[in-house]
Amino acid sequence: MKVLVGTIALLSTSLVWGLTNFWGQSQAVSWQPPTLAQSPSQNPASPDLSLLARASMAFVQSDRYQTDSIMEVTGTTSDQTFKAGVQATTIVQSPKQFRAEIAYNQPDKAGLVNILVVGDGQQVWIYRADTQQYTVKSYEDFEQLDDSYFIGISSLLFMQLPPADRQVIAQGALADSQVVQDLGLLSNPNFKGAPQWVNNQSLYAYEFLNAQDGFTLDAFVDPTTADLKQLRISGQDQQVDYAITETIRRRTANPFVTDSTFRFTPPVGARRVESVAIGPL
Asked: Class for domain 3-272, per CATH?
Protein backbone atom coordinates (compact mmCIF):
# COMPACT_ATOMS: atom_id res chain seq x y z
CA MET A 1 0.00 0.00 0.00
CA LYS A 2 1.94 2.94 -1.29
CA VAL A 3 -0.31 5.29 0.70
CA LEU A 4 1.77 4.45 3.80
CA VAL A 5 4.92 5.89 2.27
CA GLY A 6 3.08 9.08 1.42
CA THR A 7 1.60 9.24 4.89
CA ILE A 8 4.97 8.90 6.63
CA ALA A 9 6.57 11.38 4.24
CA LEU A 10 3.76 13.87 4.89
CA LEU A 11 4.05 13.53 8.66
CA SER A 12 7.82 13.88 8.54
CA THR A 13 7.68 16.87 6.18
CA SER A 14 5.20 18.69 8.41
CA LEU A 15 7.30 18.01 11.49
CA VAL A 16 10.55 19.00 9.82
CA TRP A 17 9.00 22.21 8.45
CA GLY A 18 7.91 23.29 11.90
CA LEU A 19 11.26 22.48 13.44
CA THR A 20 13.21 24.13 10.63
CA ASN A 21 11.12 27.27 10.93
CA PHE A 22 11.64 27.34 14.68
CA TRP A 23 15.33 26.46 14.48
CA GLY A 24 16.03 29.15 11.90
CA GLN A 25 14.42 31.79 14.10
CA SER A 26 16.26 30.58 17.18
CA GLN A 27 19.80 30.80 15.77
CA ALA A 28 20.02 34.47 16.81
CA VAL A 29 19.83 33.43 20.45
CA SER A 30 21.15 30.54 22.48
CA TRP A 31 18.19 28.16 22.62
CA GLN A 32 17.72 26.15 25.80
CA PRO A 33 15.42 23.15 26.13
CA PRO A 34 12.17 24.55 27.58
CA THR A 35 10.13 23.33 30.48
CA LEU A 36 7.56 20.88 29.18
CA ALA A 37 4.39 22.70 28.21
CA GLN A 38 1.13 21.70 29.85
CA SER A 39 -2.13 21.05 28.06
CA PRO A 40 -4.87 23.62 28.71
CA SER A 41 -6.59 22.36 31.85
CA GLN A 42 -9.76 24.26 31.05
CA ASN A 43 -10.31 22.10 27.96
CA PRO A 44 -10.25 18.40 28.86
CA ALA A 45 -10.62 17.47 25.17
CA SER A 46 -7.27 19.06 24.29
CA PRO A 47 -4.48 16.57 23.57
CA ASP A 48 -1.90 16.12 26.31
CA LEU A 49 0.96 18.08 24.73
CA SER A 50 3.27 17.56 27.70
CA LEU A 51 3.10 13.80 27.22
CA LEU A 52 3.49 14.24 23.45
CA ALA A 53 6.70 16.22 24.00
CA ARG A 54 8.04 13.60 26.43
CA ALA A 55 7.17 10.77 24.04
CA SER A 56 8.81 12.57 21.11
CA MET A 57 11.98 13.17 23.14
CA ALA A 58 12.09 9.53 24.23
CA PHE A 59 11.55 8.33 20.66
CA VAL A 60 14.70 10.02 19.32
CA GLN A 61 17.13 10.19 22.26
CA SER A 62 19.52 7.81 20.52
CA ASP A 63 20.58 7.62 16.89
CA ARG A 64 20.14 3.83 16.92
CA TYR A 65 17.32 1.56 18.12
CA GLN A 66 16.24 -2.05 17.98
CA THR A 67 12.49 -2.55 17.82
CA ASP A 68 10.73 -5.89 18.34
CA SER A 69 7.19 -5.60 17.10
CA ILE A 70 4.18 -7.29 15.59
CA MET A 71 2.96 -5.85 12.31
CA GLU A 72 -0.64 -6.49 11.27
CA VAL A 73 -2.54 -5.35 8.22
CA THR A 74 -6.24 -5.77 7.54
CA GLY A 75 -8.16 -4.77 4.45
CA THR A 76 -11.73 -4.87 3.24
CA THR A 77 -13.05 -4.50 -0.28
CA SER A 78 -16.59 -4.77 -1.58
CA ASP A 79 -16.36 -8.55 -1.78
CA GLN A 80 -13.53 -9.75 0.47
CA THR A 81 -11.58 -9.24 3.67
CA PHE A 82 -7.92 -10.07 4.23
CA LYS A 83 -5.59 -10.05 7.21
CA ALA A 84 -1.89 -10.71 7.59
CA GLY A 85 0.73 -10.37 10.28
CA VAL A 86 4.46 -10.71 10.82
CA GLN A 87 6.97 -10.54 13.64
CA ALA A 88 9.70 -8.00 12.98
CA THR A 89 12.98 -7.24 14.69
CA THR A 90 14.47 -4.10 13.20
CA ILE A 91 17.67 -2.24 14.01
CA VAL A 92 17.65 1.26 12.58
CA GLN A 93 20.48 3.77 12.69
CA SER A 94 20.06 7.40 11.70
CA PRO A 95 19.86 8.49 9.03
CA LYS A 96 19.01 5.51 6.80
CA GLN A 97 20.77 2.34 7.82
CA PHE A 98 18.65 -0.57 8.98
CA ARG A 99 18.43 -4.33 9.33
CA ALA A 100 15.04 -6.03 9.62
CA GLU A 101 14.48 -9.72 10.34
CA ILE A 102 10.89 -10.66 9.53
CA ALA A 103 9.11 -13.96 10.15
CA TYR A 104 5.60 -15.16 9.40
CA ASN A 105 3.58 -18.32 8.91
CA GLN A 106 2.40 -19.34 5.46
CA PRO A 107 -0.75 -21.50 5.42
CA ASP A 108 0.43 -23.90 2.73
CA LYS A 109 3.93 -24.42 4.15
CA ALA A 110 5.36 -25.85 7.35
CA GLY A 111 7.59 -23.63 9.44
CA LEU A 112 8.22 -19.92 9.30
CA VAL A 113 9.08 -17.84 6.28
CA ASN A 114 12.13 -15.69 7.10
CA ILE A 115 12.87 -12.45 5.29
CA LEU A 116 15.96 -10.28 5.76
CA VAL A 117 15.87 -6.63 4.69
CA VAL A 118 19.11 -4.63 4.93
CA GLY A 119 19.80 -1.01 4.06
CA ASP A 120 23.33 0.41 4.08
CA GLY A 121 22.31 4.01 3.48
CA GLN A 122 22.68 3.72 -0.29
CA GLN A 123 20.65 0.69 -1.32
CA VAL A 124 18.41 -2.02 0.12
CA TRP A 125 18.68 -5.81 -0.11
CA ILE A 126 15.70 -8.13 0.42
CA TYR A 127 16.49 -11.82 0.94
CA ARG A 128 14.15 -14.79 1.40
CA ALA A 129 15.91 -17.71 3.04
CA ASP A 130 13.73 -20.66 1.97
CA THR A 131 13.90 -19.82 -1.74
CA GLN A 132 17.45 -18.41 -1.56
CA GLN A 133 16.38 -15.43 -3.63
CA TYR A 134 17.34 -11.81 -3.13
CA THR A 135 16.77 -8.48 -4.81
CA VAL A 136 18.50 -5.10 -4.64
CA LYS A 137 16.58 -1.81 -4.61
CA SER A 138 17.39 1.86 -4.40
CA TYR A 139 15.91 3.59 -1.35
CA GLU A 140 13.42 5.34 -3.60
CA ASP A 141 12.24 2.04 -5.08
CA PHE A 142 12.14 0.38 -1.66
CA GLU A 143 9.94 3.12 -0.23
CA GLN A 144 7.50 2.63 -3.11
CA LEU A 145 7.05 -1.09 -2.45
CA ASP A 146 3.57 -2.13 -1.40
CA ASP A 147 4.90 -4.02 1.63
CA SER A 148 7.85 -1.94 2.90
CA TYR A 149 5.85 -1.14 6.04
CA PHE A 150 6.43 -4.69 7.33
CA ILE A 151 9.83 -3.58 8.67
CA GLY A 152 7.89 -1.37 11.13
CA ILE A 153 6.06 1.94 10.89
CA SER A 154 8.09 3.38 13.77
CA SER A 155 11.38 2.43 12.08
CA LEU A 156 10.28 3.98 8.79
CA LEU A 157 9.27 7.16 10.60
CA PHE A 158 12.59 7.28 12.48
CA MET A 159 14.52 6.95 9.22
CA GLN A 160 12.63 9.86 7.65
CA LEU A 161 13.94 12.33 10.24
CA PRO A 162 17.18 14.11 9.27
CA PRO A 163 19.81 13.83 12.05
CA ALA A 164 19.77 17.57 12.80
CA ASP A 165 16.01 17.59 13.32
CA ARG A 166 16.16 14.42 15.42
CA GLN A 167 18.63 16.16 17.73
CA VAL A 168 16.36 19.20 18.07
CA ILE A 169 13.42 16.98 19.03
CA ALA A 170 15.61 15.06 21.49
CA GLN A 171 16.39 18.36 23.24
CA GLY A 172 12.70 19.06 23.75
CA ALA A 173 11.74 21.30 20.84
CA LEU A 174 8.19 19.94 20.77
CA ALA A 175 7.72 21.27 24.28
CA ASP A 176 8.27 24.80 22.97
CA SER A 177 5.03 26.73 22.52
CA GLN A 178 6.28 28.37 19.29
CA VAL A 179 6.95 24.99 17.68
CA VAL A 180 3.55 23.74 18.82
CA GLN A 181 1.99 26.81 17.24
CA ASP A 182 3.98 26.42 13.99
CA LEU A 183 2.86 22.81 13.70
CA GLY A 184 -0.74 23.87 14.28
CA LEU A 185 -1.28 21.35 17.08
CA LEU A 186 -3.36 23.70 19.24
CA SER A 187 -5.64 24.90 16.45
CA ASN A 188 -6.13 21.67 14.50
CA PRO A 189 -9.59 20.19 15.16
CA ASN A 190 -8.43 16.94 13.54
CA PHE A 191 -5.77 16.37 16.21
CA LYS A 192 -7.21 14.74 19.33
CA GLY A 193 -6.07 12.88 22.40
CA ALA A 194 -7.65 10.88 25.20
CA PRO A 195 -6.90 7.99 27.58
CA GLN A 196 -7.79 4.60 26.15
CA TRP A 197 -7.54 0.94 27.10
CA VAL A 198 -5.54 -1.11 24.59
CA ASN A 199 -4.80 -4.80 25.11
CA ASN A 200 -5.72 -4.51 28.80
CA GLN A 201 -3.31 -1.61 29.23
CA SER A 202 -4.11 2.00 30.08
CA LEU A 203 -2.54 4.15 27.36
CA TYR A 204 -2.96 7.65 26.01
CA ALA A 205 -4.18 7.74 22.41
CA TYR A 206 -3.37 10.50 19.94
CA GLU A 207 -5.40 10.71 16.75
CA PHE A 208 -4.51 12.76 13.69
CA LEU A 209 -7.04 12.84 10.86
CA ASN A 210 -5.88 14.03 7.47
CA ALA A 211 -9.16 14.47 5.64
CA GLN A 212 -7.52 15.72 2.45
CA ASP A 213 -5.35 12.64 1.96
CA GLY A 214 -7.82 10.25 3.56
CA PHE A 215 -5.91 8.64 6.40
CA THR A 216 -5.88 8.60 10.18
CA LEU A 217 -2.78 8.12 12.33
CA ASP A 218 -3.24 6.80 15.86
CA ALA A 219 -0.34 6.70 18.31
CA PHE A 220 -0.67 5.00 21.70
CA VAL A 221 1.70 6.09 24.46
CA ASP A 222 2.33 4.81 27.98
CA PRO A 223 1.46 7.88 30.10
CA THR A 224 3.89 6.86 32.85
CA THR A 225 7.03 6.12 30.83
CA ALA A 226 6.15 8.11 27.66
CA ASP A 227 7.12 5.03 25.63
CA LEU A 228 5.41 4.53 22.29
CA LYS A 229 3.44 1.29 22.41
CA GLN A 230 1.47 1.17 19.19
CA LEU A 231 1.05 2.97 15.87
CA ARG A 232 -1.88 2.54 13.51
CA ILE A 233 -2.51 4.06 10.09
CA SER A 234 -5.94 3.55 8.57
CA GLY A 235 -7.88 4.86 5.62
CA GLN A 236 -8.86 3.95 2.10
CA ASP A 237 -6.58 3.32 -0.86
CA GLN A 238 -7.70 2.11 -4.29
CA GLN A 239 -11.13 1.15 -2.90
CA VAL A 240 -9.60 -0.85 -0.06
CA ASP A 241 -10.40 0.07 3.55
CA TYR A 242 -7.17 -0.73 5.35
CA ALA A 243 -5.56 -0.59 8.77
CA ILE A 244 -1.84 -1.12 9.37
CA THR A 245 -0.89 -1.60 13.02
CA GLU A 246 2.48 -1.92 14.70
CA THR A 247 2.42 -3.19 18.28
CA ILE A 248 5.79 -2.50 19.86
CA ARG A 249 6.85 -5.24 22.27
CA ARG A 250 10.28 -3.83 23.05
CA ARG A 251 12.34 -0.87 21.87
CA THR A 252 15.98 -0.72 22.95
CA ALA A 253 18.39 2.18 22.50
CA ASN A 254 21.96 1.64 21.30
CA PRO A 255 21.78 -2.06 20.40
CA PHE A 256 25.05 -3.82 19.64
CA VAL A 257 26.05 -3.65 15.97
CA THR A 258 29.06 -4.76 13.96
CA ASP A 259 30.61 -3.69 10.67
CA SER A 260 28.38 -6.22 8.91
CA THR A 261 25.05 -5.32 10.56
CA PHE A 262 24.02 -2.99 7.75
CA ARG A 263 25.60 -4.98 4.94
CA PHE A 264 24.35 -7.96 2.98
CA THR A 265 26.49 -10.61 1.35
CA PRO A 266 24.49 -13.12 -0.70
CA PRO A 267 24.88 -16.66 0.66
CA VAL A 268 26.47 -19.25 -1.60
CA GLY A 269 23.83 -20.46 -4.03
CA ALA A 270 21.56 -17.42 -3.64
CA ARG A 271 20.02 -16.10 -6.85
CA ARG A 272 19.30 -12.47 -7.64
CA VAL A 273 15.76 -11.84 -8.93
CA GLU A 274 13.67 -8.84 -9.90
CA SER A 275 11.53 -8.78 -6.74
CA VAL A 276 11.08 -10.50 -3.38
CA ALA A 277 7.99 -9.99 -1.23
CA ILE A 278 8.67 -8.73 2.29
CA GLY A 279 5.37 -9.82 3.82
CA PRO A 280 2.72 -12.47 3.21
CA LEU A 281 0.47 -10.28 1.03
From this structure: mainly beta
